[in-house]
Amino acid sequence: MIEVDGIDVSYGNIQVLWDLSFHVSEEDRVVSIVGPNGAGKSTLLRVMSGLHPYHAGSVTAWGEDVAEMDPSEVVQRGFVHVSEERNLFGDMTVRENLEMGAYTKRDTLDETLREVFDLFPILEERASQRAGSMSGGQQQMLAIGRGLMARPKILALDEPSEGLAPQITNRVFEKIDEISEEVTVLLVEQHVHKALGLADRAYLLENGEFVAEDTGPALLESDHIKDAYL
Ligand SMILES: Nc1ncnc2c1ncn2[C@@H]1O[C@H](COP(=O)(O)OP(=O)(O)OP(=O)(O)O)[C@@H](O)[C@H]1O
């Protein structure tokens, strides 16, 4: 499990997360974090991945201090973060991108590739195509598939619906629901209805602090969410 305890996080001298505590474990199915632009959602994921430092509190992954780890060790332990930017290798093929995702789990590469192709048949059909030539929805599925290639225990998805048409967004969320049967999903989303509809635990983050926490459906019905979004 990943445990965040009382962290303060800044960019230069601007603090963006304030005394934040939070955890996600393999027993969770979907945990969602929603909140407006600039609330600090992506920053929290970056801190959990060991990609950004914190200056108070602690972050542990399966009991070990993330600040002491290289980001690849966080991946190795089971926390994989698919960033908002997707960061695909546009000139490489779909298959090559997926293989890159297995850099910490080479021994199970063939087996995992089969599972990812079963989940996303389009990736198998397009295996030899350049990643950069795929549609936005296909690229998002590739980014998620590449994350799964590292065999995560917890898969963090940052804004998976970003830039996608509503119909494609629905497809992506159907896949996320399917993935959550096997792997814990930590979902950061602007798409509040979808993200809270799936979540068994959910948080509203505003200005670097959690202002509400509940089950996803209960948070969706709360005045906090109605005031902020509806
Ligand atoms: N590299 C950076 N340098 C300086 N400030 C940053 C940097 N990245 C983010 N910030 C600032 O930190 C705050 C939190 O940003 P963050 O991206 O974590 O929010 P978010 O909730 O994920 O929002 P969004 O959905 O817009 O990405 C914002 O005020 C943002 O401007």
UniProtKB/TrEMBL annotation:
Gene3D superfamilies: P-loop containing nucleotide triphosphate hydrolases. Residues 2-230 form the ABC transporter domain. The keyword Transmembrane helix does not apply. Signal peptide: none annotated. CDD domains: ABC_TM1139_LivF_branched. Keywords: Amino-acid transport, ATP-binding, Nucleotide-binding, Transport. GO terms for molecular function: ATP binding; ATP hydrolysis activity; branched-chain amino acid transmembrane transporter activity. PROSITE patterns: ABC_TRANSPORTER_1, ABC_TRANSPORTER_2. One of its GO terms (biological process) is L-amino acid transport. Belongs to the ABC transporter superfamily. This is Branched-chain amino acid transport system ATP-binding protein. It comes from Halogeometricum limi.
